[in-house]
Amino acid sequence: MGERVFQRIGIVGAGAWGTALALVARRAGRDAAIWALEPEVVDDINARHANTRFLPGVALDPNIRATTDPAEVARADAILLVTPAQHTRGLARRLAPYWRDGTPALICAKGIEQESGKLLSEVVADEIPGAAIAVLSGPTFASEVARDLPTAVMLAARDAKLADALARALGTSRFRAYTATDVVGAEIGGAVKNVIAIACGIVEGRKLGDNARAALITRGLAEIIRLARAKGGDARTLMGLSGLGDLTLTCNAVQSRNFSLGLALGRDRPLAMILAERTTVAEGVFSASSVMELARQLGVEMPICAAVDAVLNHGADIDSAIAGLLARPVGTE
């Protein structure tokens, strides 16, 4: 058999990241079709070649087409799942009747399912058993990718040939896709870094200094590695783009949804008010509880993530949570 060629790229989700990835596909010379739930977004993309709601100010390639029909996007050679993590199961279930066995499902969301504590690769496998699963992760802001600024990502699949073929389908000189086979490590790095970014934002909002943020990033990486190893991932993966790279970006930039949410919390703004003002999803808000559920299942200690979960979901006082972290015994690194 010859090499697989993915000419037709389907994208599930017309948010900022899904729209940016449609632009990536077009720059790589591929056809791109987006399935969106909002008819007004579909009309905006098709008629005005823009996504004013989710990616304002960016002109879209006129050959990007949008649809509200899941059957249309399911005819693609490879399908990118770019919806918020907690919607993955429901949308995969809607796509399942149209899915052709062997078609790749490239998961581009970052999160862990609430309640079950399952990775998104496990969720998709539950709902679409015939999908060939891969994961796209790494340090990426959608607005910069949309503007074709240089970006490097990790594309992981247990089948190395599939990862290579997908990387060739989407990669350009300004969107560099490195491959790996450690799906678990890639997913956990992408999910947990959002929780650590909220913690870093809180530290910034409380004006606790750069030393404290650097310590959080470093100890947060240790938590990510512990969880990944317990789940069967490779610690070396977390030294790359989907671990250290993504963590560094998300924990140091106000344009990060999770960092900026933590920043607002650290300035004593109520969580409900912050969320009500946003049209985009800060995945760490939902991932905090699901990360802790997975940690409990695997018997992994994650004090930073536990503190964030306590603040977001259990009414903990921020200053008390910080004091609790600082009071922990100092051990070997």
If you had to describe this structure to a student in words, what would you say it looks like?
- The chain is an alpha/beta fold and 333 residues long.
- It has two domains: 8-181, Rossmann fold (3-Layer(aba) Sandwich); 189-326, N-(1-d-carboxylethyl)-l-norvaline Dehydrogenase, domain 2, CATH 1.10.1040.
- It is built from 15 helices and eight strands.
- An eight-stranded mixed sheet has the order 3-2-1-4-5-6-7-8, sandwiched between helices.
- Strand 2, helix 2 (39-48) and strand 3 (65-67) form a beta-alpha-beta unit.
- Helix 8 (183-205) runs antiparallel to helix 9 (210-231), helix 8 (183-205) packs parallel to helix 10 (241-250) and helix 8 (183-205) packs across helix 13 (283-298).
What labels describe this entry?
N-(1-d-carboxylethyl)-l-norvaline Dehydrogenase, domain 2; 333 residues; 8-stranded mixed β-sheet; single chain; Rossmann fold; 2 domains; alpha/beta; 8 strands
